[in-house]
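2024-03-11 09:14:02 INFO worker-7 job=invfold-0412 stage=load source=structure_tokens
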């Protein structure tokens, strides 16, 4: 069913490919981290597993990084005079 929907959307829009991945909230963040992890692994760089998240980040960012199957350790970065927003 999902593949049929993707195919139909490609036909309607003329796009070469279509994704039904979530694009916002915790589900979108989880999907993004999963894609990043797969990308690094495909290049033989699976050891690249650190996700930097500023203290000012939305609450779901650290939660997803810390609990996802990606196993990214979350490093909370304190604000600095150079950071934005202050």
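2024-03-11 09:14:09 INFO worker-7 stage=emit residues=86
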């Amino acid at each position: 069913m999902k593949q049929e929907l993707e195919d139909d959307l490609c036909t309607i829009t003329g796009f070469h490919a279509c994704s039904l991945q979530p694009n916002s909230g915790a589900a979108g963040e989880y999907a993004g981290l999963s894609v990043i992890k797969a990308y690094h692994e495909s290049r033989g760089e699976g050891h690249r597993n650190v996700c930097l998240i500023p203290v000012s980040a939305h609450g779901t960012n650290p939660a997803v990084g810390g609990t996802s199957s990606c196993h990214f350790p979350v490093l909370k970065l304190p604000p600095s005079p150079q950071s934005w927003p202050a």
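2024-03-11 09:14:09 INFO worker-7 stage=report msg="Residues 2-77 form one domain."
2024-03-11 09:14:10 INFO worker-7 job finished
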